[in-house]
């Protein structure tokens, strides 16, 4: 797949953030096989640039998701509650950067993200620093009128490789994730490596990329949360959650 990226113009991280930071946005996720992704990339080489840092175009990410001892944030997603959020650390391996992030589901299916720069010691700590707990609680209360009411503990590591495209003319960012791997106290799991999670992020969720994918019979996949699928696989392997059909149909997990 990387061979096709040679035909895209490179873009720096600073330029990407300037064009399409999109901390408030609508996300559409699609699952493509290798041939479908190749067709998509071949058709969009003149519409998007590819994030390139020191000649590298595919980057290694590690997310550490935090949840309550009873998996309350997972359960809110599994029950389809309108008021739901995810809390995580993100480590950018190549850049050696660490961020603490709160992703909140807003009204009209918007995603709102708040992030704070942090460091390796916070990422590796057994207990979340109080300042970061308050950061998460404050933003949740701003949206939902109630603060966090339960402790946050390390729940799951999610590792993957990512390619990022940014629109030349539109404020659109497309992430392409592959080799998605999970690790928790319950063990390890991985999604099939020949499938790619393609997420199109835009203001309204109606970008040219979305229209092209729909025209080629690819539609947004609901309940395609990397974290929630991982919890289903590792913490609740025998439970028929809302994410089990996605795993079975899109990634051939039985």
N→C terminal distance = 27 Å
Largest sheet: 8 strands, antiparallel, barrel
Derived from helix and strand composition plus strand pairing, the structural class reads alpha+beta
Radius of gyration: 18 Å
Approximately how much helix is present in the residues?
Answer: 25-40%
How would you name the oligomeric state of the polypeptide chains in this document? single chain
Q: In terms of per-residue confidence, which ranges show pLDDT below 50 for 5 or more consecutive residues?
A: none
- Stated plainly, the CATH topology is called mRNA Triphosphatase Cet1, Chain A
Report the count of strand segments.
11
CATH architecture descriptor? Alpha-Beta Barrel
CATH superfamily: VTC, catalytic tunnel domain
Please tally the helical runs, counting DSSP H or I stretches of 4 or more residues: 8
Q: DSSP strand (E) fraction?
A: 35-45%
Highest-level CATH class:
Alpha Beta
In round numbers, the mean pLDDT is: 93
């Amino acid at each position: 797949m990387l061979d096709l990226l040679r035909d895209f113009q490179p873009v720096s991280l600073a330029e990407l953030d300037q064009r399409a930071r999109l901390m408030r946005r609508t996300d559409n996720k699609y699952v493509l096989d290798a041939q479908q992704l190749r067709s998509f990339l071949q058709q969009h080489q003149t519409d998007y640039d590819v994030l390139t840092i020191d000649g590298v175009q595919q980057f290694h990410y590690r997310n550490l998701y935090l949840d309550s001892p009873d998996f309350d944030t997972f359960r809110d997603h599994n029950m389809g509650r309108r008021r739901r959020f995810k809390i995580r650390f993100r480590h950018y391996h190549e850049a050696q950067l660490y961020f603490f992030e709160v992703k909140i589901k807003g009204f009209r299916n918007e995603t709102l993200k708040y992030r704070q720069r942090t460091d390796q010691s916070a990422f590796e700590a057994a207990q979340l620093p109080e300042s970061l707990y308050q950061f998460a609680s404050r933003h949740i209360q701003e949206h939902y009128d109630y603060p966090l009411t339960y402790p946050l503990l390390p729940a799951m590591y999610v590792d993957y490789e990512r390619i990022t495209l940014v629109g030349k003319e539109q404020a659109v960012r497309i992430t392409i994730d592959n080799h998605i791997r999970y690790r928790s106290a319950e063990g390890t799991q991985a999604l099939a490596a020949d499938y790619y999670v393609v997420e199109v992020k835009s203001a309204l969720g109606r970008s040219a990329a979305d229209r092209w994918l729909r025209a080629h019979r690819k539609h947004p996949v609901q309940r395609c949360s990397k974290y929630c699928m991982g919890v289903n696989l590792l913490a609740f392997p025998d439970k028929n959650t809302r994410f089990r059909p996605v795993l079975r149909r899109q990634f051939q997990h039985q």
